[in-house]
Amino acid sequence: MRKFHFNTEAGIKIFLIISALIGLATGLSDSLLANYFKDAYGINAQQRGLVELPREIPGVISMFLIAALAFIKNTKIAVVAQIFSAAGLVVLAFIRPSFSVMLIFLFVYSMGVHMFLTLGDSIGLSLSRKENMGRTLGRFNSIRMAFMMVAGVMTFFGFHFGWFSFETPVAVFLLSVVCFILVALLLIVLPKAAPETDGAVSPDTKLVFKKEYARYYVICALYGGRKQIMLVYSPWVLIELLNFKADTISILAVIGAMIGIFFMPVVGKSIDRLGIRKVMLLEAMAFINIYIAYGILSKWVSTHEVVLTGLIMMLVYLLNILDRMSAQFAMVRSIYMRHIALTPEDVTPSLSLGMSIDHVVAIAGSYVCGVIWYNFGPEYVFVLAGLLSFVNMLVVRGIQPESGGRMPPLRNRE
After folding, report:
1. Which residue ranges form the domains of the chain, and what is each CATH number?
2. Distance, CA of 52 to CA of 106 (rounded, Å)
3. Least packed by Cβ within 10 Å: which of 111, 210, 254, 268?
4. Looking at 91-169, which runs of residues are DSSP E strands?
């Protein structure tokens, strides 16, 4: 039998397919959960914040789980992550459990998703050369966004024409399960194509907390608060205040993903050309203005101070789409960590710790923002997001500009 020899370029192609399937899987599941909670369980804004606890706690636990599995190769842990995602979602697809039981399987699903968030970045970075990390991660994220757009188109037509619903079995969730299973199979093949993706976390650095990375930890914490508002309460303006259904939310996701296809490579190239600091500053300044605008608009809508004309609705759509762009800057933080790492073994555990810090803040933010929305009004939730973006800008200003705006090589242990 002929033996095939693989190379890194083949590994990149496989990971592009993995990125595409992850985009499709999350587009068919994670992006629809807010509508699922509302339609299947009729929750309010305060309950919406509480539902985020089983979704976000896995972001903290995943750090310890990945550390406990440090003796296993990265891609094998990533396979376990896909099994978790598929197992949790398949239960929600076939039965509508009681609210408390649903939260258990939501936790299992979310554990898999969060484990792969860290491992996916680590695997993607291992396939990147130092001089083009931004371009390579931009390429992976661009294909993921393209297939999130495909998922959005599928869900728009599916829910608009009644092909999909949240009645059991939830066909759209089953399609997502199939994608997660295919990703698991490809992750088994990937190390044969690119052995560098299969590095295990070094036992002596599997839980990394170093003072040299303090700024990275603070940036992750600030992002955790902003992310929670972006993922949970921005779409809740549309779902709770404007009563938008899954088809409308899906078409907004399509537009956001379509922009992301072109936007992610631009972000990646900007990192390589301008440097990490400038890109992070631009992100912070842009989102200060976006959240202030969102706060004003949500007050108008909630108090009926404005007539929902076509122009106002276009502004609502635009802000929602721009807000989605926040998540697309996640790779900047991953590259920043790769840039400041004292040793290559620090990268995966530090990304994992950063995600855990992000999620600790998000867990607290879920409840706090729900209380703020319920008792004071939605506009104050977005004022908080604007303040977090402002603090983030101040923290980022302290980053030393890279020489020539480009990425220096990773420092190795002497």
Report:
1. 8-405 (1.20.1250.20)
2. 10
3. 210
4. none
